[in-house]
Amino acid sequence: MQAFQDFYPENVAHCYGCGRLNADGHQIKTFWDGDETVTRFQPKPEHTAIPGFVYGGLLASLIDCHCTGTAAAAMYRAENRAMDSLPAFRFVTGSLQVSYLKPTPLGPQLEIRGRVKEIKGRKVVVEATLYAEGVATARGEVVALQMPDSFTA
Amino acid sequence: MQAFQDFYPENVAHCYGCGRLNADGHQIKTFWDGDETVTRFQPKPEHTAIPGFVYGGLLASLIDCHCTGTAAAAMYRAENRAMDSLPAFRFVTGSLQVSYLKPTPLGPQLEIRGRVKEIKGRKVVVEATLYAEGVATARGEVVALQMPDSFTA
């Protein structure tokens, strides 16, 4: 099964968080699960905050890219279009908010689940919760904006 | 001159963003500049968002660690104590908010400037602005919390 990020056009598929063409990046993969979207990610040993716990900046990054991916997928759904149809949707982050509910243990695979809160014009608001072994450890919200043409001009 | 992060106790100096003992991490260094705090950071080529621009997750990470470092330094200042005096202050992130004002060009060194907004008990609120070549491209706020003992128990 192809992930949302597998459909990003080649010229915008280099993001450190979610670009399949960034060899050094996280290359997250996001999928639909009913009305929710899901990303699973295995942090590396160096992704430490305090020893034993995951670095909060990584969690923010995962939530960020999960939500911009969800925004794109949601727009295709809203238009009842396949993700390989044109024009392609690609979103950037207008704002990102993350609340750290409790320390996230470093070791288990993490799961981020997202839900579209609002679609309005070129803006999609997505909320996400991050889980470690089924326990919600962080919650975030992203205001995603359809990428301005000036980004690739 | 020693940075705030050079004073973090050894057992809490492994953070991917700011720990001097994390060989794979960003190892940011933050200093006072009057009432403001300053971090300068050179992104790497792989820290891409859309080609030519810096990955927003990195910017969030830099703001995050800059602000927790500022929180610690501010507490020493508030107590009129040197940063190598005990007990040591170390903060974690309760919440992080970042607004992306405009695309951040990938290439120039970035500057993050912080300012303490509030100190109340174990909580310090820090706001920060990120600049590329003197232009503010992102703005953030962190609610930093003094690290609970349970983190290192």
Automatic annotation (TrEMBL), chains A, B:
The keyword Mitochondrion does not apply. GO terms for cellular component: cytoplasm; membrane. Keywords: Apoptosis, Cell membrane, Cell projection, Cytoplasm, Fatty acid metabolism, Hydrolase, Lipid metabolism, Membrane, Transit peptide. The keyword Hydrolase applies. Residues 52-135 form the Thioesterase domain. It comes from the Bacteria. GO terms for biological process: fatty acid metabolic process. GO terms for molecular function: thiolester hydrolase activity. It is found in: Cell projection, Ruffle membrane; Cytoplasm; Membrane. It catalyses: (5Z,8Z,11Z,14Z)-eicosatetraenoyl-CoA + H2O = (5Z,8Z,11Z,14Z)-eicosatetraenoate + CoA + H(+); decanoyl-CoA + H2O = decanoate + CoA + H(+); (9Z)-octadecenoyl-CoA + H2O = (9Z)-octadecenoate + CoA + H(+); dodecanoyl-CoA + H2O = dodecanoate + CoA + H(+). It is a peripheral membrane protein. Its EC number is 3.1.2.2. This is Acyl-coenzyme A thioesterase THEM4. It comes from Dechloromonas denitrificans.
